[in-house]
Design a protein that fits this description.
Layout lengths: L1 E7 L4 E4 L2 E2 L4 H11 L3 E5 H6 L9 E5 L11 E3 L2 H7 L6 E3 L3 H7 L5 E7 L7 E2 L8 E9 L9 E8 L2
Parallel strand pairs: 1-7, 1-8, 4-5, 4-7, 5-6
Antiparallel strand pairs: 2-3, 2-9, 8-11, 10-11
């Protein structure tokens, strides 16, 4: 099972300057709970943005397009196919970013775990559109914002319909 997990602004922004647009503590806890014990696949820039590497309790697979490059602390993969082959040991694989990696995995993903932030912010990285024809909402829960740093948001779980 391949799942994408991401926080997205109202206008589909996901990041700026290799950082998240918002850091919502409850969302970070949800991310950890959902991904713990599973494989996580990410691009090299996402890896470099992590405050602690590797993310403990998960098999960290990092995609690079530089042949032969080894990324210390991770399992290095050189293509989508290579990353999937190296994650066969996991019952669920989570794609955790960035933008290019999300776009490449969207056609093969089974689930989307979306944190939809009900606000926009300047972004330089975007998430692809989620088509109502390909995805159905399985769960949705709203949360009110606490401050400018923690705006209103929703957790939405989508499942591929075709």
């Amino acid at each position: 099972m391949i799942s994408i997990i991401v926080a997205i602004s109202e206008d589909n922004g996901i990041g700026r300057n290799n950082d998240l647009l918002w850091k919502i503590p409850d969302d970070m806890k949800r991310f950890k709970k959902l991904t713990m014990g599973h494989c996580i696949i990410m691009g090299k820039r996402t890896w470099e943005s992590l405050p602690k590497r590797p993310l403990q309790g998960r098999k960290n697979i990092v995609l690079t397009d530089i042949p032969g490059e080894e990324i210390e602390g991770s399992t290095t993969a050189y293509s989508i196919e290579d990353a999937l082959e190296k994650s066969k040991v996991c019952s669920e694989i989570f794609i955790i970013g960035g933008g290019s990696v999300y776009r490449q995995f969207m056609p093969v993903a089974d689930n989307l775990y979306i944190t939809r932030i009900h606000r926009s912010a300047p972004a330089d990285t975007w998430f692809p559109e989620i088509s109502d024809e390909e995805w159905e909402i399985m769960e949705s829960k709203e949360y009110s914002g606490e401050s400018d740093e923690i705006p209103p948001y929703s957790y939405i779980v989508y499942r591929r319909t075709r």
